[in-house]
Design brief:
3-stranded antiparallel β-sheet, alpha+beta, about 190 residues, about 30% strand, 5 helices, Arc Repressor Mutant, subunit A, about 30% helix
């Protein structure tokens, strides 16, 4: 786990907190793991926070997560005709998600039951932060006519802003990593 992810975890658990408190808590974690010989210094924590100015806000030596990056919910949908369509709603505040699948396949209308293995919402949240999907374009379209293909949409709600992206047969550069993260969460290939 990266150091900034540990800081995010501490802030999510405790709310806005001082550099000194972050440092103390990180050193307590390290004592339990016995991973470091030297304790983490406040200057190291400040350095990490200053490198991640897009995630953290500092006021009077109190560190918090920027409102526009504090994740509340994510809704993603992908589908193509006649194949399956998937929709996932992740509630980061409640640490849960809902997954829907439907298929407009006239050939096999019978219901299929299956067991799926689901992942961890906290781990998914960390991956969403790593992917920085708030930097995605609003619309991804090919410059040619597409009569059918894969359409998708992603809506990320934070405390301070809502980010929306969608596309048809065109995807952001890190879509494969996003798709893999969703697939690991829901236990079904999200593609």
């Amino acid at each position: 786990m990266n150091m900034y992810e540990i800081i995010l975890d501490i802030i999510e658990k405790n709310g806005p907190v001082s550099f000194h408190s972050i440092c103390e808590e990180m050193n307590e974690m390290e004592k339990m793991k016995n991973a470091r010989k030297n304790p983490i210094q406040v200057s190291h924590v400040k350095s990490v926070v200053s490198r991640k100015k897009d995630l953290f806000s500092v006021e009077d030596n109190i560190v918090s997560i920027r409102e526009e990056k504090e994740l509340l919910a994510l809704v993603a949908m992908i589908g193509c005709y006649p194949g399956p369509t998937y929709k996932i709603h992740v509630d980061f505040a409640q640490n849960r998600f809902f997954f829907f699948e439907w298929n407009i396949d006239c050939v096999s209308p019978e219901r299929k039951e299956r067991t799926i293995y689901i992942g961890d919402v906290e781990q998914f949240k960390k991956e969403i932060i790593r992917l920085k999907i708030w930097n995605w374009e609003r619309d991804y379209q090919l410059n040619s006519l597409v009569l059918d293909g894969t359409s998708w949409s992603v809506k990320l709600k934070t405390k301070g802003k809502v980010y929306e992206s969608e596309g048809l047969q065109s995807f952001p550069k890190n879509w494969a990593k996003f798709s893999k993260a969703v697939s690991q969460l829901i236990g079904v290939k999200f593609e």
